[in-house]
Amino acid sequence: MDAAVQGRRPVRSFVRRQGRLTVAQRRALDELWPLYGVTPTGAALDLPALFGRRAPVVFEIGFGMGDYLIGRATSEPQHDFFGVEVHRPGVGRVLHRAHAAGCRNLRVACVDAVEVLRDSLAPESLDEIVIQFPDPWHKKRHHKRRLIQPAFASLAASRLKRGGLLSLSTDWAEYAEHMRAVLNAEPALRNEAADGGFVPRPPTRLRTKFEQRGERLGHAVFDLAYRRR
């Protein structure tokens, strides 16, 4: 039975911690959303029409304050980037920085990324999916909230083009093992590590403030990479 019929909310992999918007972030949301913002309707998005051209599309789930997303979008003008984040301060910051950099190959949405993947992106429409440091939900009773689950692995694989890349990183060792086990079991994905384990830090993964904080706390960082078969 559907969760809405049962009167229960679906389990989310995130909690909306809105925080306080700065003046610049609020102005960016008000003024720049028509230029960069995407409000999914449930119909499949026409990505070439959205970006005004045909180019490889990179989809980032949960871009936080946007350091990685902006870094790649500005350094890889030959690619288009579509980022999804539920926290408005991060979205406002990305809009502000994108406009300041004259970045035109970037679009953002402020909704549940799983719903965007499921309802607004056609099968085999993405060249890369990036998931940087998803919430590990480290308490056992919260493991059901983790983003990386078998159903999500199947969905993500279906949205990648043949040969497309799923790139992930985490600084929680137990979650890294969980992600590896789940993704190794997905028949549509092939682990890029020959031994079925982790891969070296990819050159496209810029070291964010979040990662640097984790390193100061003594957390190792684990990278995974999977190709759509």
From TrEMBL:
<protein>
    <recommendedName>
        <fullName>tRNA (guanine-N(7)-)-methyltransferase</fullName>
        <ecNumber>2.1.1.33</ecNumber>
    </recommendedName>
</protein>
<comment type="similarity">
    <text>Belongs to the class I-like SAM-binding methyltransferase superfamily. TrmB family.</text>
</comment>
<dbReference type="InterPro" id="IPR029063">
    <property type="entry name" value="SAM-dependent_MTases_sf"/>
</dbReference>
<keyword id="KW-0489">Methyltransferase</keyword>
<dbReference type="InterPro" id="IPR055361">
    <property type="entry name" value="tRNA_methyltr_TrmB_bact"/>
</dbReference>
<keyword id="KW-0949">S-adenosyl-L-methionine</keyword>
<feature type="binding site">
    <location>
        <position position="112"/>
    </location>
    <ligand>
        <name>S-adenosyl-L-methionine</name>
    </ligand>
</feature>
<comment type="pathway">
    <text>tRNA modification; N(7)-methylguanine-tRNA biosynthesis.</text>
</comment>
<feature type="binding site">
    <location>
        <position position="85"/>
    </location>
    <ligand>
        <name>S-adenosyl-L-methionine</name>
    </ligand>
</feature>
<keyword id="KW-0808">Transferase</keyword>
<feature type="binding site">
    <location>
        <position position="171"/>
    </location>
    <ligand>
        <name>substrate</name>
    </ligand>
</feature>
<dbReference type="GO" id="GO:0008176">
    <property type="term" value="F:tRNA (guanine(46)-N7)-methyltransferase activity"/>
</dbReference>
<dbReference type="Pfam" id="PF02390">
    <property type="entry name" value="Methyltransf_4"/>
</dbReference>
<feature type="binding site">
    <location>
        <position position="135"/>
    </location>
    <ligand>
        <name>S-adenosyl-L-methionine</name>
    </ligand>
</feature>
<feature type="binding site">
    <location>
        <begin position="208"/>
        <end position="211"/>
    </location>
    <ligand>
        <name>substrate</name>
    </ligand>
</feature>
<feature type="binding site">
    <location>
        <position position="60"/>
    </location>
    <ligand>
        <name>S-adenosyl-L-methionine</name>
    </ligand>
</feature>
<keyword id="KW-0819">tRNA processing</keyword>
<feature type="binding site">
    <location>
        <position position="139"/>
    </location>
    <ligand>
        <name>substrate</name>
    </ligand>
</feature>
<dbReference type="InterPro" id="IPR003358">
    <property type="entry name" value="tRNA_(Gua-N-7)_MeTrfase_Trmb"/>
</dbReference>
<comment type="function">
    <text>Catalyzes the formation of N(7)-methylguanine at position 46 (m7G46) in tRNA.</text>
</comment>
